[in-house]
Write a structure and sequence with these properties.
This protein is α/β, with parallel strands linked by helices. It is built from five helices and eleven strands, in the order αβαββαβαβββββββα. It has a domain of about 150 residues: Rossmann fold.
Protein backbone atom coordinates (compact mmCIF):
# COMPACT_ATOMS: atom_id res chain seq x y z
CA UNK A 1 0.00 0.00 0.00
CA UNK A 2 2.83 2.39 0.86
CA UNK A 3 4.48 1.56 -2.44
CA UNK A 4 1.25 2.24 -4.31
CA UNK A 5 0.77 5.57 -2.48
CA UNK A 6 4.35 6.59 -3.26
CA UNK A 7 3.92 5.55 -6.90
CA UNK A 8 0.64 7.49 -7.14
CA UNK A 9 2.27 10.61 -5.64
CA UNK A 10 5.17 10.30 -8.07
CA UNK A 11 2.77 9.89 -11.00
CA UNK A 12 0.75 12.93 -9.95
CA UNK A 13 3.93 14.98 -9.59
CA UNK A 14 5.05 14.03 -13.09
CA UNK A 15 1.60 14.84 -14.45
CA UNK A 16 1.70 18.23 -12.79
CA UNK A 17 5.15 18.97 -14.23
CA UNK A 18 3.91 17.96 -17.67
CA UNK A 19 0.86 20.18 -17.30
CA UNK A 20 3.01 23.13 -16.30
CA UNK A 21 5.30 22.52 -19.26
CA UNK A 22 2.29 22.43 -21.60
CA UNK A 23 1.11 25.76 -20.17
CA UNK A 24 4.24 27.59 -21.36
CA UNK A 25 3.26 30.11 -24.03
CA UNK A 26 4.61 29.57 -27.53
CA UNK A 27 5.73 32.75 -29.26
CA UNK A 28 6.86 33.17 -32.87
CA UNK A 29 9.56 35.82 -33.36
CA UNK A 30 9.32 36.66 -37.05
CA UNK A 31 12.00 38.83 -38.64
CA UNK A 32 11.76 38.31 -42.40
CA UNK A 33 12.65 41.39 -44.45
CA UNK A 34 12.45 42.36 -48.09
CA UNK A 35 13.17 46.05 -47.51
CA UNK A 36 15.82 47.71 -45.35
CA UNK A 37 17.58 45.07 -43.25
CA UNK A 38 18.35 46.20 -39.70
CA UNK A 39 21.66 44.94 -38.37
CA UNK A 40 20.03 44.73 -34.95
CA UNK A 41 17.65 41.92 -35.95
CA UNK A 42 19.96 39.08 -34.99
CA UNK A 43 20.79 40.80 -31.70
CA UNK A 44 17.08 41.28 -31.08
CA UNK A 45 16.30 37.63 -31.76
CA UNK A 46 18.99 36.58 -29.28
CA UNK A 47 17.64 38.99 -26.66
CA UNK A 48 14.09 37.71 -27.12
CA UNK A 49 15.30 34.12 -26.80
CA UNK A 50 16.96 35.00 -23.47
CA UNK A 51 13.83 36.84 -22.39
CA UNK A 52 11.74 33.76 -23.17
CA UNK A 53 14.02 31.48 -21.18
CA UNK A 54 13.87 33.83 -18.18
CA UNK A 55 10.08 34.22 -18.29
CA UNK A 56 8.99 30.67 -19.12
CA UNK A 57 8.08 31.38 -22.73
CA UNK A 58 8.98 29.08 -25.61
CA UNK A 59 10.44 31.22 -28.42
CA UNK A 60 10.54 30.06 -32.04
CA UNK A 61 12.50 32.39 -34.33
CA UNK A 62 11.88 32.25 -38.05
CA UNK A 63 12.21 34.22 -41.28
CA UNK A 64 10.15 31.78 -43.36
CA UNK A 65 6.87 33.26 -44.67
CA UNK A 66 5.65 29.72 -45.29
CA UNK A 67 4.81 29.61 -41.57
CA UNK A 68 1.75 31.62 -42.53
CA UNK A 69 0.57 28.83 -44.82
CA UNK A 70 -1.51 25.94 -43.57
CA UNK A 71 -2.13 25.57 -39.84
CA UNK A 72 1.32 26.43 -38.50
CA UNK A 73 0.03 29.43 -36.52
CA UNK A 74 -2.29 27.19 -34.51
CA UNK A 75 0.60 26.29 -32.22
CA UNK A 76 1.43 29.89 -31.25
CA UNK A 77 -0.01 32.19 -28.61
CA UNK A 78 1.65 35.38 -29.87
CA UNK A 79 3.70 36.71 -32.78
CA UNK A 80 6.51 39.25 -32.46
CA UNK A 81 7.14 41.16 -35.70
CA UNK A 82 10.75 42.30 -35.34
CA UNK A 83 11.63 45.03 -37.88
CA UNK A 84 9.84 43.18 -40.69
CA UNK A 85 10.37 45.74 -43.45
CA UNK A 86 8.98 45.62 -46.97
CA UNK A 87 9.44 48.13 -49.81
CA UNK A 88 6.80 50.85 -49.62
CA UNK A 89 6.46 51.22 -53.42
CA UNK A 90 6.84 47.56 -54.35
CA UNK A 91 3.80 45.33 -53.69
CA UNK A 92 5.84 42.34 -54.85
CA UNK A 93 8.00 42.72 -51.72
CA UNK A 94 5.06 41.83 -49.47
CA UNK A 95 4.65 38.25 -48.26
CA UNK A 96 1.23 38.62 -46.65
CA UNK A 97 -0.74 37.91 -49.80
CA UNK A 98 -3.65 35.65 -50.65
CA UNK A 99 -4.46 33.01 -48.04
CA UNK A 100 -1.64 34.19 -45.76
CA UNK A 101 -3.62 37.33 -45.01
CA UNK A 102 -6.56 35.26 -43.87
CA UNK A 103 -4.31 33.09 -41.70
CA UNK A 104 -2.97 36.13 -39.85
CA UNK A 105 -6.46 37.57 -39.51
CA UNK A 106 -7.73 34.25 -38.14
CA UNK A 107 -4.89 34.27 -35.61
CA UNK A 108 -5.84 37.77 -34.49
CA UNK A 109 -9.55 36.95 -34.36
CA UNK A 110 -8.96 33.97 -32.08
CA UNK A 111 -7.14 36.24 -29.64
CA UNK A 112 -3.50 35.60 -30.54
CA UNK A 113 -1.22 38.34 -29.21
CA UNK A 114 0.76 40.68 -31.46
CA UNK A 115 3.96 42.56 -30.62
CA UNK A 116 5.47 44.97 -33.13
CA UNK A 117 9.02 46.23 -32.70
CA UNK A 118 10.52 49.20 -34.58
CA UNK A 119 10.18 48.57 -38.35
CA UNK A 120 7.11 46.39 -37.96
CA UNK A 121 5.44 49.71 -38.80
CA UNK A 122 7.50 49.92 -42.03
CA UNK A 123 5.81 46.94 -43.64
CA UNK A 124 2.98 45.88 -45.95
CA UNK A 125 1.91 49.27 -47.23
CA UNK A 126 -0.36 47.53 -49.72
CA UNK A 127 -2.47 45.97 -46.96
CA UNK A 128 -4.41 48.60 -44.99
CA UNK A 129 -5.53 46.04 -42.41
CA UNK A 130 -1.92 45.41 -41.36
CA UNK A 131 -1.38 49.12 -40.78
CA UNK A 132 -4.49 49.25 -38.58
CA UNK A 133 -3.27 46.18 -36.66
CA UNK A 134 0.04 47.87 -35.80
CA UNK A 135 -1.65 51.23 -35.20
CA UNK A 136 0.37 53.47 -37.55
CA UNK A 137 2.66 53.59 -40.57
CA UNK A 138 6.29 54.67 -40.58
CA UNK A 139 6.68 58.02 -42.34
CA UNK A 140 10.22 59.26 -41.64
CA UNK A 141 12.94 59.63 -39.02
CA UNK A 142 15.54 62.29 -38.20
CA UNK A 143 19.07 61.59 -39.41
CA UNK A 144 21.13 59.20 -37.33
CA UNK A 145 20.48 57.94 -33.83
CA UNK A 146 20.42 60.97 -31.53
CA UNK A 147 19.85 60.77 -27.79
CA UNK A 148 16.14 61.35 -27.14
CA UNK A 149 14.28 62.20 -23.95
CA UNK A 150 11.59 59.54 -23.41
CA UNK A 151 8.64 59.94 -21.06
CA UNK A 152 6.28 57.18 -19.94
CA UNK A 153 2.74 58.47 -20.37
CA UNK A 154 0.96 55.69 -18.46
CA UNK A 155 3.04 54.22 -15.62
CA UNK A 156 0.13 52.00 -14.56
CA UNK A 157 -0.10 49.96 -17.75
CA UNK A 158 1.41 46.46 -17.43
CA UNK A 159 3.87 47.21 -20.27
CA UNK A 160 5.29 50.23 -18.44
CA UNK A 161 4.78 49.32 -14.77
CA UNK A 162 7.95 49.86 -12.76
CA UNK A 163 9.86 51.48 -15.61
CA UNK A 164 11.87 54.62 -15.00
CA UNK A 165 9.33 57.31 -15.98
CA UNK A 166 11.81 59.56 -17.78
CA UNK A 167 15.14 58.77 -19.37
CA UNK A 168 17.44 59.68 -22.22
CA UNK A 169 18.36 56.91 -24.64
CA UNK A 170 19.86 56.52 -28.10
CA UNK A 171 17.70 55.19 -30.91
CA UNK A 172 16.29 55.94 -34.34
CA UNK A 173 13.14 57.98 -33.73
CA UNK A 174 10.20 57.31 -35.99
CA UNK A 175 7.54 59.73 -37.13
CA UNK A 176 4.25 58.19 -38.28
CA UNK A 177 1.38 58.62 -40.66
CA UNK A 178 -2.07 57.03 -40.40
CA UNK A 179 -1.61 57.03 -36.63
CA UNK A 180 -4.68 55.66 -34.86
CA UNK A 181 -5.61 58.26 -32.22
CA UNK A 182 -7.61 55.67 -30.28
CA UNK A 183 -4.58 53.57 -29.31
CA UNK A 184 -3.46 53.69 -25.68
CA UNK A 185 -0.29 55.77 -25.63
CA UNK A 186 2.47 54.40 -23.36
CA UNK A 187 5.63 56.39 -24.12
CA UNK A 188 6.65 59.46 -26.12
CA UNK A 189 9.87 61.20 -27.14
CA UNK A 190 10.46 64.94 -26.90
CA UNK A 191 11.03 66.09 -30.52
CA UNK A 192 13.29 68.97 -29.52
CA UNK A 193 15.61 66.53 -27.74
CA UNK A 194 16.25 64.84 -31.10
CA UNK A 195 16.76 68.04 -33.08
CA UNK A 196 13.21 68.46 -34.37
CA UNK A 197 11.41 71.80 -34.33
CA UNK A 198 7.93 70.63 -33.33
CA UNK A 199 6.86 70.74 -29.69
CA UNK A 200 4.23 68.00 -29.54
CA UNK A 201 5.47 64.74 -27.94
CA UNK A 202 5.99 62.05 -30.58
CA UNK A 203 4.41 58.60 -29.95
CA UNK A 204 6.92 55.82 -29.36
CA UNK A 205 4.99 52.97 -27.69
CA UNK A 206 1.33 52.09 -27.48
CA UNK A 207 -1.16 49.28 -26.99
CA UNK A 208 -4.64 48.56 -28.24
CA UNK A 209 -7.15 45.78 -28.65
CA UNK A 210 -7.82 45.02 -32.28
CA UNK A 211 -10.44 42.62 -33.61
CA UNK A 212 -10.02 40.25 -30.68
CA UNK A 213 -6.25 40.53 -30.18
CA UNK A 214 -4.09 42.52 -27.81
CA UNK A 215 -1.43 44.49 -29.70
CA UNK A 216 1.67 46.14 -28.22
CA UNK A 217 4.01 48.21 -30.38
CA UNK A 218 7.21 50.09 -29.69
CA UNK A 219 9.10 52.12 -32.29
CA UNK A 220 12.28 51.78 -30.27
CA UNK A 221 14.81 49.05 -31.02
CA UNK A 222 16.76 50.23 -34.07
CA UNK A 223 20.25 49.84 -32.66
CA UNK A 224 22.04 46.68 -31.63
CA UNK A 225 22.72 48.31 -28.26
CA UNK A 226 18.97 48.62 -27.69
CA UNK A 227 18.79 44.90 -26.97
CA UNK A 228 21.23 45.26 -24.08
CA UNK A 229 19.22 48.16 -22.63
CA UNK A 230 17.47 46.87 -19.47
CA UNK A 231 14.77 49.57 -19.73
CA UNK A 232 13.76 48.62 -23.27
CA UNK A 233 14.03 44.87 -22.70
CA UNK A 234 11.78 45.13 -19.66
CA UNK A 235 9.33 47.27 -21.66
CA UNK A 236 9.20 44.65 -24.43
CA UNK A 237 8.96 41.76 -21.95
CA UNK A 238 6.08 43.35 -20.10
CA UNK A 239 4.38 44.22 -23.38
CA UNK A 240 4.69 40.57 -24.42
CA UNK A 241 3.26 39.46 -21.10
CA UNK A 242 0.32 41.82 -21.65
CA UNK A 243 -0.53 40.49 -25.11
CA UNK A 244 -0.27 36.95 -23.72
CA UNK A 245 -2.68 38.03 -20.95
CA UNK A 246 -0.29 36.80 -18.27
Amino acid sequence: MRFFAAFLAFACFNSAVAAVAQDRPNVLVFSHTTGWRHSSIETGVEALARLGAERGIDIVASEDPALFDGDALDGFDAIVFLSTTTEEDDPASEWFVGERRKKLQDFVHRGGGIVGIHAAADSHYGWPWFGRLIGARFARHPTGTPAGHVTVTDPDHPATAGLEPELTRIDEWYYFEDFDPTVHLLAVVDPQSIGESDVNPNPMSWSHEFEGARVFYTAMGHTEESYADPWLIRHIAQGLDWVLQR
